[in-house]
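Support reply, case 0932

Customer input (verbatim):
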Amino acid sequence: MTKQKGKIGIQTENIFPIIKKFLYSDHEIFLRELISNAVDATQKLKTLASLGKFKGELGDLTIQVEVNKKKGTLTVRDRGIGMTAEEVDKYINQIAFSSAEEFVKKFKTKSEAEQNAIIGHFGLGFYSSFMVSEKVEIFTKTYKKGGATKGVHWECDGSPEYIIEEYDKKDRGTEVVLHIDKENKEFLEEYKVEELLKKYCRFLPIPIQFGMETVQEPVEGEKDKDGNPKTKEVKRPKIINNTNPLWKKSPSETTDEEYKAFYRELYPMTFEEPLFHIHLNVDYPFNLTGILYFPKVKKDYELQRNKIQLYCNQVFVTDSVEGIVPEFLTLLHGVIDSPDIPLNVSRSYLQSDQNVKKISNYITRKVADKLTEIFKKDRENFEKKWDDIKIFIEYGMISEPKFYEKAEKFALLKNTDGKYFTFEEYKKHIEKTQKDKNKKLVYLYATNVDEQYSYIQAAKDRGYDVLLMDGVLDAHFINTLEQKFTDSMFARVDSNTIDKIIVKDEEIPSKLDDKQKEKVKEIFERNIDKKQFEVVFESLSETDMPVTITQNEFMRRMKDMEAIGGTGMMGLGGLPDTYNLVVNTNNPLIYKLVETEEKEQQDAVVKQLYDLARLSKGLLKGEELDKFVKRSVEIIK
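Our regenerated output:
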């Protein structure tokens, strides 16, 4: 074969500027594409050997990646099936470029949004190397015997023109040499290349070598003074990937320690062990394997996202898995591998793909089944982990109706005494004692035990139970439960006085008549912030506090929800907090206030009661707090 020059027959403008422009934000994926091609060529050879169609020695099939900073080249070398001159012409000059031409035609006629939706539908593969190169060379030799005893050299400088010639290559396989351009010199830095290899190729099924590493090896027959084998430093090829990741093993053959070790391999900078794992393994109606871990979640749960890694045949695709994994499970960690999800796809394509929807539904069901199993098998252990895993479960129950149906059997409610109940258990626990005037079941809850202690205690003193709803999603979750539970309502313990929330058999009569109430109201209103507080009267027990502060449940809850996002209501967060100043008409201090005629004494008592109520609610601060402390000292004197 003599040296040939040719021009690829495309009718459109030069493809390469389009590739560079379109894929610029993802230009690092060129290395993934080249390694994937090398793996594919190697696995094809192994398959041919297993079928008896290749009878030669397989030998070392390690894929080698080399950087030569002096020459400005990055090389990917495999010992796979290789190509003949005819195959180079067919697969490199014709098929790939015709796909590229079709891509350009569609690309030019679409809007920017539509352009983003067609990435991945065309076999650009090998040509992604031109995103970072001024010239690309291929040196290849087929595994076939016969007439193809010599290799082939192909060269292209990023224009439709190419050179193809015979080349004296000794070994089978393909070597792709990239001459890195000036704008992409970072890909000649070893640390950068290794970073990309570990990102995209860390679990590929064929060993990948990049550079050398120094290790300690025992010296045969020699020991040190303590009797331990002597070691020496040796250099060996550095293999950067694990060719047999844990998710490829059968769950029945995998130990807990292996799952934990694999978690540390995935997240070396995470020091806490996962709570538990779910091993996915399905081959119908789609192929999917993987391992999902429930991590310990911090309060800033948003920072925990993008921890699930998506692979296609062990090739890394993305760690942004929305659309593939249900939204609430994006907080999990782990790996999903499916050949039914192509390497290069747009987000909109994923969201509309039927296979992806089936995968999403399967993962939801599998997670629910695993949680059900753990709950039934070892409820005590499940309760110990509840506070760490409830964010996943609540998120799922809020956002996925099908998950709610399964989760309502194992989801737990925790009260302020630290006891756990299923939904059904808690309903039975309170249904005889906690109902409002409309016979609705009342779920009392607190969001902060310390801040709402007096209100919680007041409820307990009356024989009621109080839930602890202090999770980051509990404001949303309460709304979901109210919609699901029949004839029920949720009320925070400080949303009103307990006797107003839950109806008792007998009402306590008021010791103040309307005229006396008007007098008390007038005294209070001249000593309080009337824009923030409204004076209301309630007939409570003589032993209840003289003055308490409550806040409208609906408005407070809406503001809480808006603070963490997702209410769809605008502007509530900007409204000032308003409260009810509840005056207990049966407390002796209030009755004494009625009898007092001296204005100065009236004001002193009311100011103290008002500040005490605000102090218990955490509303007394700054200068007002300082005045209260000084006034209290004077009273003690």
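We compared this against your earlier run and they match. Two observations from our side: Confidence is low (pLDDT under 50) at residues 110-123. The radius of gyration is 36 Å. Please reopen the case if you see a mismatch on your end.
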